[in-house]
Amino acid sequence: MISISLCLIVKNEEETLGRCLSSVKDIVDEIIIVDTGSTDSTIQVASEFTDRIEHFTWVNDFAAARNYAFSLATKSHVMWLDADDILKEPDRRKLKALKKKLNPAVDSVSMEYHLAFDEFGNVTSKLRRNRIVKRERAFQWIGPVHEYLEVYGDIFHSDVAVTHSSIHHDSDRNLNIYEQRLAKGEVFSPRDLFYYANELKDHGRYEAAVRYYDKFLATGKGWIEDNVAACSRLADCYGELQEARNTLDSIFRSFHYDKPRPEFCCRLGYHFLQQNEPKLAVYWYKLALSAEKPEQNWGFENLACSTWLPHLQLCVCFDRIGEYEKAHEHNEKAAQFRPTDERILANRSYLNQRLGKKKNEKALQ
């Protein structure tokens, strides 16, 4: 059985750290906390779980802090989490089982990262991250901001999921780091261009975000998932700027990098529905449901676009066309994911009336 060192870098995480560590303390063999300058009771919380608490002088470089934390590990494998991550009970059981049976030859274990949920508990946004690595491989973290763990070799894709459960977020921190680097004259890598554009978008600086997304895509060196995401976020930016043609062009631009994905199909379905072209909208919403998805999706995935949302929109489309049986069919399929959604319940009542009226009309003929 492998042994696991859990490594976290923290700063002012008193509200979330205990919850995180409680969810894994009986599974890992060592907990290492690297504090980067807390001024609250984070250290006291950490001391309830481990005596391996170290300090790291913050230099605006997340990779440097994580690499330092990894360097302190002593067990056969190293796992990382953020303080606002948890493992839910089903995933705790899966991790315990994985720890017992993992082939020691595996270099890295990837896990799903569940980022958002709807009011019914369905995962609405997720991606996959490398979470556990063999210590002897000495894999390194890369990038001052939005850092990633560079791994290679034998990677095992597990069914364990880590759940992100944030309470607060320093919304200006990453943007400030990027702008300090720009002020020093640093030349950004393609990855930096993409993530800086994301920060600009998140701060409502849409015109600047558009420039940097274009700069990123123009390099021709982006990871496919970032290329596709850039097209999606360009569409969002142009939507905020009320530039309809550029919004549509950004959606189609994604097809340069990959086959039509559910998110973009839904975007096109919505566009044509707004243009009062329900039959064209039907084409794209149906494609959203049938579009092939990668077996292991390392990029952000909006699960609504391949599950309930196309069905709900198809209900609207078929109602407009007057095909009420098909509208009812898709509404009920949407209900399988969101059984108490008020929109679906209202559709059901309306369509039952429509279908009842239609049956009565046929009987009178």
TrEMBL record:
Coiled coil location: none
Record flagged with keyword Transferase: yes
Domain Glycosyltransferase 2-like: 5-128
GO molecular function, one term: transferase activity
UniProt keyword annotations, A-Z: Transferase
Domain of life according to the entry: Bacteria
UniProt name for this protein: Glycosyltransferase involved in cell wall biosynthesis
Organism: Paenibacillus endophyticus
Lineage: Bacteria, Bacillati, Bacillota, Bacilli, Bacillales
